[in-house]
RNA sequence: GCGGGUGUAGUUCAGUGGUAGAACUCCAGCCUUCCAAGCUGGCUACGUCGGUUCGAUUCCGUCCACCCGCACCA
């Protein structure tokens, strides 16, 4: 039987399949949907759970140096002041009414233009390498147009936020070069707000967490005191996070409610210690992505240039995946120094220091943070698994999931549904296997059709019971990818599937 | 937020100012010893609200959602 892989799937292919087979639905669909939210159906929830379980098993259970936790979604609002999210997540934006361009207010720079000390107008530019040169050039032009003689004063660029309201309308739009079209800075807060308690006032404002990481830092001391951990060690967490994105897009890739799998890995505070851990984590995480079935040739890394890093950050590498809509970030691995713990020590007034028995000294540990999106990973898994093959002039849709993360591990299919003995044996096998795996029983339709149904659900094994089974106690086990069949005694089915799933 | 496009069955698409049709899927039955077979029957749709009209799925507007650009993405 010859098989050929056809071209890569488009997002439409993926979305349509997700809907058709019950992986992912638009949230609140019967009410017209809600932008940026998605629901997981019967197959989706299994796939998602398996991905999370694989991560937890490999990163927590499979390692002696990492423990888990699960912090609440709503936490003390001061956590988000300490982390910087209250300030940095509310980016003030400026719109140009003329050109319809939108700018971050801290990226839009301006300066008064003085000739012999007298203000003759304003210039604006965008943050960038040549911002000063650009502004000075514009100032020259302005001076020439105004036909002014005299000495041009120095151009001192300031952020738009530093302008007073009466100056907003004098600053020219970078797009049009003319003043009068820029709006005042407007807040776009990315954190969802709610109120804790019955009273709706400023003192009861709380936030849905925009990341899970801070819940780990906030519990650092508790875990240090109870879990008998020693540097280096990590705390892992899987949980929902919420961001009120301006523009959610690309299906579940950027949604407003999503789930993260994060580790804060605490290490010595020496300035030269972090680099080894950092590179080790990049390797570990990259290997994990390949192990759950992401296509090797679609994975890559992106190293953040030093000048783009936050001031506290030592280094950051993203693991990228080639989605149908482009190469995008899957996971970020950041060396964050001890910024977060230090911030919480300052804001909470509680010590975040660790006493190192070996070194006989106290320090605030540094941290490496591998942070991964569950939904993005799931989408990458779907993109990697989706295969269209040509089989004897028919096309076959197959999701080639690694057996470990496949939603359904095996389907039990009686070859005929109107032969009681075959049905009885099939149900017995189904019941047995269902004790340890998510298996599926299907007796409707021709056998070929049932195989194809399972192919599109990504089920790695189909077990078929026929007349021979009644005679010799074996069943046919059909492999999803090769479509080849072998006969296995009923009693060995469970062990065979175990072996394939867990290695 | 802006510009453009789209919205009819589970999916992919036809079509109409007099309330709709296909293919595949799905369900039931018959048949069938292994890769979407056949036969019979069946379920299921005009995104929302409003306007025009005797009558709107169709024309117009609104909202919602999706897609493509732009901008944004700690």
Quick rundown:
With 503 residues, this protein is an alpha+beta fold.
Distance between the termini: 27 Å
What is the CA-atom radius of gyration, in angstroms? 29 Å
Q: Please estimate the helix content.
A: 25-40%
Care to count the β-strands?
27
Mean pLDDT, as a whole number?
A: 89
Q: Overall 3D geometry? A: elongated
Biggest pleated sheet = 7 strands, mixed
Structural class: alpha+beta
Query: Order of strands across the widest beta sheet?
Result: 4-13-14-20-17-16-15
Q: What percentage of amino acids are in beta strands?
A: 25-35%
In DSSP terms (H or I, runs of 4 or more residues), the helix count works out at 15
User: Uncertain regions: pLDDT < 50 for 5+ in a row?
Assistant: 1-5
Describe the structure.
With 503 residues, this protein is an alpha+beta fold. Helices cover 31% and strands 29% of the residues. It is built from 15 helices and 27 strands. The strands form eight sheets. The protein has a seven-stranded mixed beta sheet with strand order 4-13-14-20-17-16-15. Strands 24-23-25-26-27 form a five-stranded mixed beta sheet, with helices on both faces. The protein has a three-stranded antiparallel beta sheet with strand order 1-21-22. Helix 2 crosses helix 11 (374-385). It starts with a strand and ends with a helix. Mean pLDDT is 89; it is low at 1-5. It binds one RNA strand of 74 nucleotides through helix 1, helix 4, strand 5, strand 6 and strand 22.
């Amino acid at each position: 039987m010859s098989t050929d892989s056809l071209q890569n799937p488009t997002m439409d292919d993926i979305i349509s399949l997700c809907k058709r087979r019950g992986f992912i639905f638009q949230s609140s669909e019967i009410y017209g949907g809600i932008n940026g939210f998605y629901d997981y159906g019967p197959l989706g929830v299994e796939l998602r759970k398996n991905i999370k379980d694989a991560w937890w098993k490999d990163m927590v259970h499979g390692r002696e140096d990492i423990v888990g936790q699960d912090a609440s979604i709503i936490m003390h609002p001061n956590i988000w002041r300490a982390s910087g999210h209250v300030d940095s997540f509310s980016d003030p934006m400026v719109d140009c009414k003329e050109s319809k361009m939108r700018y971050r207010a801290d990226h839009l720079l301006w300066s008064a233009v003085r000739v012999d000390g007298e203000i003759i107008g304003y210039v604006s530019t965008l943050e960038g390498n040549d911002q000063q040169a650009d502004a000075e050039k514009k100032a020259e032009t302005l001076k020439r147009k105004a036909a002014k003689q005299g000495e041009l004063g120095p151009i001192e660029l300031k952020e738009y936020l530093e302008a007073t309201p009466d100056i907003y309308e004098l600053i020219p739009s970078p797009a049009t070069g003319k003043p009068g079209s820029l709006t005042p800075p407007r807040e776009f807060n990315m954190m969802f707000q709610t109120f804790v308690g019955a009273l709706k006032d400023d003192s009861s404002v709380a936030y849905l967490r925009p990341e899970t990481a801070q819940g780990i830092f906030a519990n650092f001391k508790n875990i240090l005191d109870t879990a008998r951990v020693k540097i280096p060690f990590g705390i892992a967490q899987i949980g929902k996070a919420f961001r009120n994105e301006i523009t959610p897009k690309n299906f579940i890739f950027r949604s407003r409610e999503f789930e993260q799998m994060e580790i804060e890995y605490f290490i010595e505070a020496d300035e030269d210690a972090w680099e080894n851990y950092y590179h080790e984590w990049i390797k570990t995480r990259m290997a994990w992505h390949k192990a759950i079935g992401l296509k090797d040739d679609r994975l890559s890394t992106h190293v953040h240039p030093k000048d783009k890093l936050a001031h506290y950050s030592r280094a950051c590498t993203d693991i990228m995946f080639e989605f149908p809509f482009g190469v995008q970030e899957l996971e970020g691995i950041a060396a964050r120094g001890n910024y977060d713990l230090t911030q919480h020590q300052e804001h909470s007034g509680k010590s975040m220091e660790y006493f190192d028995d070996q070194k006989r000294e106290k320090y605030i540990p540094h941290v490496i943070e591998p942070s991964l999106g569950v939904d993005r990973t799931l989408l990458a898994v779907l993109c990697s698994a989706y295969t269209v093959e040509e089989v004897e002039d028919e096309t076959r849709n197959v999701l080639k999931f690694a057996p470990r993360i496949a939603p359904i591990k095996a389907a039990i299919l009686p070859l005929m549904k109107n032969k009681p003995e075959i049905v009885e044996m099939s149900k017995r096998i189904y019941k047995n296997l269902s004790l340890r795996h998510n298996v599926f029983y299907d007796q409707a339709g021709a056998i070929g059709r049932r195989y194809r149904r399972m192919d599109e659900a990504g089920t790695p094994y189909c077990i078929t019971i026929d007349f021979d089974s009644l005679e010799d106690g074996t069943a046919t086990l059909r492999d999803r990818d090769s479509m080849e069949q072998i006969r296995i005694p009923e009693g060995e089915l469970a062990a065979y599937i175990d072996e394939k799933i867990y290695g």
